[in-house]
Amino acid sequence: MFATHLHPVIYGDYPEIMKKHVGHKLPSFTPEQSKMLINSFDFIGINYYSARYTAHLPHIDPGRARFRTDQHFEERGINDYDDGLKSREGILNDTFRISYHKDHLKQLHKAIM
């Protein structure tokens, strides 16, 4: 599942199948960059709170960019608006965010157990 994302930081290059399908849209690494990439991580975080479903589309022109099928990312979580008027104490007394994370972790624990 994460092979295309982790392959460069484990092996220093993209998987061959990815290079074949993405072609010139995929940037390449110099030999020095490849050496620097190998085992360059000390932590890998995985967003587990979102699901993406895919389907095989047999008739796609790889030379044509596709908004719906090219990968894109969305940020999810708490919508936080800062108008610059909150005091330091108000920012630190963030009971809404604390409650959100506490409830989220409680539900995660229930799902695991």
From TrEMBL:
Pfam families in the cross-refs: Glyco_hydro_1 (PF00232)
Residues in coiled coil: none
Molecular-function GO term, any one: beta-glucosidase activity
SUPFAM superfamilies, sorted: (Trans)glycosidases (SSF51445)
Residues annotated as signal peptide: none
Similarity comment: Belongs to the glycosyl hydrolase 1 family.
PANTHER family: BETA-GLUCOSIDASE 31-RELATED, GLYCOSYL HYDROLASE
Protein name (Swiss-Prot/TrEMBL): Uncharacterized protein
